[in-house]
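ping. complex inputs:
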Amino acid sequence: MMLKIENLHASIGGKEILRGVNLEVRGGEVHAIMGPNGSGKSTLAQVLAGRDNYEVSGRVLYDGQDLLALSPEDRAATGVFLAFQYPVEIPGVGNLYFVRTALNAVRRHNGLEPIDAIDFLALARERMRLVEMDESFMTRSVNEGFSGGEKKRNEIFQMAVLEPKLAILDETDSGLDIDALRVVAQGVNALRSEGRAMLVITHYQRLLDYIVPDVVHVFAEGRIVRSGGKDLALELEQYGYTGLDQSRSLASAGVPDRATP
Amino acid sequence: MTNLISSEVRELAAKDYQYGFVTDLETDVIPRGLSEDIVRMISAKKNEPDWMLEWRLKAYQGWLAMAEPKWQNVGYAPIDYQDIIYYAAPKPKKVLASLDEVDPEVLAMFDKLGISLAEQGRLSGVAVDAIVDSVSVATTFKSKLAEVGVIFCSFSEAVQNHPDLVKRYLGTVVPRKDNFFAALNSAVFTDGSFCYIPKGVRCPMELSTYFRINTADTGQFERTLIIAEEGAYVSYLEGCTAPMRDTNQLHAAVVELVALDNAQIKYSTVQNWYPGDADGKGGIYNFVTKRGKCAGVNSKISWTQVETGSAITWKYPGVILQGDNSVGEFYSVALTANHQQADTGTKMVHIGRNTRSTIVSKAISAGHGQNTYRGLVKIRESASGARNHTQCDSLLLGGDSGAHTFPYIEVKNPTAQVEHEAYTSKIGEDQLFYCRQRGISAEDAVSMIVNGFCREVFKELPMEFAVEAQKLLSVSLEGSVG
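pong. complex structure:
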């Protein structure tokens, strides 16, 4: 098991947002987490990546280690990647310089030599093609003046360079037009592999037309209320979250209590 | 993260100042205090001609009638001007015929500061005038510069050897009674650098002055005068450090630049005077008057400053844009950490037609640091078509620091265009978390974000200096996250 979340709670300013999340993800699997706004999906992403504004309890095992005990940079170094819902601008810091610094920090942590500028450039060029990013984005400041779609592509580009083991995509589809969505999804699909797990957080079903998940979870009020195969997403599309709630209460006996198919 | 931030800001506060050592030099020191006799004594020590003494005495009389200014946004205990030593000089063992004869202790001190005065040892091609306390101890590459007619020497030597040039330009940009500290400097200045670039000459190497305060309780009052004749070009750098001491020391310098027709002067400063300890004890009061005059048409003066040291920094390097089409630039990075205070900015005075000025100010405040940008853009009636663009950005690290902006704009000509932009940002937890999520440590992330913030200014610095400035900033900010 790559990721095992047990009874995870998180609150901020006394307000409980995650209320006992349980989830298991194997290497190679893509799990979609769907749910209405404010249900706690993004908080789950932030807590897993190590944002420490939250009071957290419960247990998260990642590759057998206690993920919650690690600093954000150590989590990154062991292969946890978060594609941000709102990627942050860093004025004056070149995009490529930033990604190379990140890659070398991760490499150093893992006892590898830093990659030199020339090899890195070749790598970056190749990975930028995955998300059809123009080379002018190499030298521009990190996310500064990027459109919404460009920022999201940049996240997937960084993911392609850093080659994480566990990628968490937080509403990567929000604010994208259909062409940008296709490009981003294509980049993500190219990065699916045996050793890599992905948690795809989304509000809408449409992303899942492009990134087909192995498992779909429905998130509501801080926990997973239902899990199923990719058809669950279609059901959601049809009935909406409220409709699904009703269908769930009608068929509650059939809800799997473990979040695997 | 909030806890992490404050603990790292505390670490920053504990960061040692790297240049705080004292060198044991045999020093010629005059008694404390200031009087007409002291002014005469300084002039006599330097064996000055009468006109120079007269000039000093007039400045001293002017100073007596002036009051110390209180309008700046900094706070400090009253300075006792009678408790300062106005002249201290390392005693030369004998008259120097060449650099090889410079006191080895002095050479060792500069080596320790990372500045080799041995010409053979220098690969960088930068000529250096080294000033300790009140006097210039060595100037490198003099003969090579003389081949193209460039005069680069200590101010004292210029008074002796080039009196006509000194007489013609001294006080023409910063008059004796310009302000309290300029008047004080004019009375008691002890040394400094003098540069003269003749007509049409592009100075073949960077010129640089390195200032070092060594003796306790001394003030450093240096005076720099740079003259670029028609079509001449020079790039000039200055660096400064001082030992760590519990008492405050006063540094009141005056720098005057004169650019004639089509001439260009680029003046870069990396100021790293001792900033005082974590509780704000000790440190240099850096009260400096720097001004350039674009006297000729199409002339250009650029100030680039990286101010990371001093307990208090108070300076406004400015440009008087007299010649038509002349250009003034001011690029500044000012960092205040611990209890440092800075009130700095520039004055751009547009007189000639189609004169242009650019101001880019980047202020970084950490710990309890207080950082003020104060700038004046003045467009006189005669300055048709004048343009100014001002951008001042502030970056706050930690909750106890402050940033303030006081732009003054006076426009007397309706054809002028003046733009002002200002931003204040905090190194957000968002930025920091974004970097850390990518595997970059908090410390490296802060350094990266701050250097990015300063990039527009650093790219104006000569290469070697830019690297130095980045390092300095990283060291000054080590552990500082906000």
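Residues 75 and 220 of chain A are 27 Å apart (CA to CA).
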